[in-house]
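Data card: per-record layout.
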Amino acid sequence: MGQMGYMVMECGLGAFSLAIYHLIAHGVFKATLFLGSGAIIGNARKDPNIPEGEIYQFMVERKVPHPPVSWVIFAGITITVPLLIVFGAHQLVDEGFLHHQGALILLLFGWITGAQTLFFVYKIGGERPFTALLYVILSFGLVIMTYVLVGHAFDALLYPDPAFREALYAAASVNFTSFLLVLMLLIALIAGGWLMVFRSTAERQPLNRRWRGVYLNLYALMSREFYIADLYSRAGETILAASKRVNTLLRWV
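The structure for this 253-residue chain is written out next.
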């Protein structure tokens, strides 16, 4: 359902061809997982022991080693490297992508995803964090380049007319000044949030009372999905109660 949500978002941004590619790629990915699950189960039955490494200690034993690298260096890498990879991939394929608001929103999501992956490497720590970081960056770069290349190829295949493609993105655009202000605000908030998370993780110091209250309120707000579901539920209950009263009144009359 989460992937379908991304596909619907891509359609809303005017990237219909990218949504179609996303649908096909996700189907192939899931089919590969299902078809390969039997071999994995068979291998697990032969050798059920999990190799005890850094990932095993982090995922199974919940042991979080103290990262040997400064959190400032790793925070800089986490924030800048995914952004450069996503931006560079689009710039190599389509120099005019900055004029598409939908492309910028997808760039933002790609940046957040890459940053989350690099932060996971930082939390695992270990004796050779930069080795794991290099593999993750190479894999992320390969995925992003493939996604961008195939996405643009699908775009040209389904909509050969460049003017029509531009019209699709233009139809999903909003006021440029407002969009730019919101985008810069989101980037500043996300980057500031990453810096706070890195610092608190590295120093292992609990948040003071003031910031802890802000954090808990934000966590409650996001975990309850901004109370939108509660609002819909309360509105539905109110409408049903009102309809029952109207129904009773009409029958009484």
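Known properties of this structure: The chain has a mean pLDDT of 79. The chain has one domain: 2-205.

See the next section for split statistics.
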